[in-house]
Task: structure prediction
Amino acid sequence: MIEAKLSSQVADALATGGAVVALESTLIAHGLPYPDNLAVAKQLEADVLAIGAVPATIAVINGEIKVGLNESDLEIIAHGSNIRKIGPRDLAAVITRKESAATTVASTSDIAASVGIKLFATGGLGGVHREANYTFDESADLTTLSNTPIAVVAAGVKSILDVPATLERLETLGVLVVGYQTLAFPGFYQTESGYDLEWCFDSAAEIADLIKTHANLQSTGAIVVANPVKKELELPKQLHDDVLLAGMAAAKKAGISGKQATPFLLEFFHRETKGESLRVNIDVVRSNAKLAAEIALELSQLR
Ligand code: PSU
Ligand code: MN
Result:
């Protein structure tokens, strides 16, 4: 088990088999602009609480892994420009240096599963980047999901990625992907990515059952619950495709690669769509947090 400081609400809920939803901090520090990000961080926690589950936002604060952040921790993360974005491999370094850092899907999943949290909500997963065939840029989210027993609610993978390659890797790595009320794999800013799923689960209760069965089988990987943005809220396709092409060209020109690629492209989208992509991004994470809370609640009633 990873040594972490749990908020008293999270500790109580875990001790009594209550519903807990993990939330990540990279999305706050590097995925959304200040001060919207701070408001979103608080809104996500309120959304989870309103459904009757306990939110557990995860980050490293002054060298300590925290599960459940207080107001001042959230401020530190939200003023994120000099906060590192860290995957599982970086944890030891950040703790040794007593720095604060934002955790990605990979490191958040790792920490959450290790303290006994079963549900995690994010926006879009990391995966295989376009041109990964020669850059080798594949998110550590994939490796972690292959060996971490947690259910992650996401609107698919970020649309800036190579979506079909990411789906192939998820299959190879043994990560179960199920659509929530859909067989169309979501496209993050868009309802559909153009790629299909093999499983559609229709309710939070059915997904809670699935998580329980998966655990009984001692399956070691994660379950991805793919929750699409509502059609009437998605980013228009032409706008999305145009901005993505322009963003990738701008990234190349600016020499952006590796872990800077995602924050650069998300910011490019927010700017070039005049806030439309930001609105969709917020809708997506809120909807995922709510669904994760509903599933966590059902699961707590099963156990
Ligand atoms: N999805 C979002 N916004 C984000 C991310 C995902 O809507 O900021 C972050 C997550 O923390 C994810 C990370 O784990 O991007 C993946 O980054 P990379 O591709 O560098 O591994
Ligand atoms: Mn990468």
Observations:
- Residues 24, 26-27, 30-31, 104-106, 122-124, 126, 139-141, 158, 259, 262, 266, 281 surround pseudouridine-5'-monophosphate (ligand 1) (CB under 6 Å).
